[in-house]
Specification:
The chain is α/β, with parallel strands linked by helices. It is built from five helices and twelve strands.
């Protein structure tokens, strides 16, 4: 049996198939409007309810003074040795409040929590949008046992498609190499079909939504 012609015939059929346009199974999903109906009410309330239902911890802060006070209380109550942050703008914003628990120089392996900003908050799914394009990179939001996100009202969007459009507007054609959607603490049901929290990432996730930007 001559294998070469048979192989070439298979590859030819594959090339022909790839050259043909493939209809989308749900073409309405690619339209300009979301297939999900927006609920009545504010996006911040919708996000808070959905995120809390996913075991996330939502905190509304009137200003950065409240952010600092909440960080101080969390560090004390959880006996965190440090809260790790490498975002210079965020560190500069919180500098006046003299948080001894906040650091950017110590080893992240000793941190009880990682502090970051985010790209967006998705109200419908209660998700935090993170990317490798942020100053925190890939590690700070997933390595420490807890992840704390500082976000602002103008980062709230209704659906995932709105978050992706926001990223395209920000980065253009050079999208970050990693874009992730963090919906509360990490969890898995792979072990005896029992839900276990904090296996592949942080056990606790906080969102501080700050009413006033720096």
């Amino acid at each position: 049996m001559n294998v070469a012609p048979a192989k070439e015939n298979i590859l030819k059929r594959v090339r022909n198939a790839l050259s043909q346009p493939v209809p989308l199974p749900f073409p309405q999903a690619e339209g300009k409007q979301s297939v999900f109906a927006s609920q009545a009410g504010d996006l911040d309330i919708q996000f808070a309810e959905t995120f809390s239902g996913l075991l996330g911890r939502f905190v509304f802060c009137a200003d950065h003074a409240e952010v600092a006070e909440n960080l101080r209380l969390l560090a004390a109550n959880n006996e965190w040795s440090s809260i790790y942050c490498r975002e210079l703008q965020l560190l500069h914003t919180l500098e006046p409040y003299q948080l001894s628990c906040l650091n950017a120089s110590e080893d992240i392996r000793d941190a009880g929590a990682g502090l970051t900003t985010c790209e967006a908050l998705v109200a419908r799914t209660g998700s935090i949008v993170l990317s490798a394009g942020q100053p925190s990179g890939r590690t700070v939001g997933v390595f420490p046992p807890a992840h704390i996100v500082v976000a602002y009202p103008d980062q709230l969007v209704f659906d995932i498609r709105d978050a992706l459009a926001r990223l395209r507007n920000k980065y253009g054609e050079r999208l970050p190499s990693m874009i992730s959607f963090q919906s509360g603490p990490s969890r898995t049901s792979d072990i005896e079909k029992r839900s276990v929290v904090g296996v592949h990432g942080p056990r606790e996730v906080y969102v501080f939504l700050v009413d006033r930007e720096p």
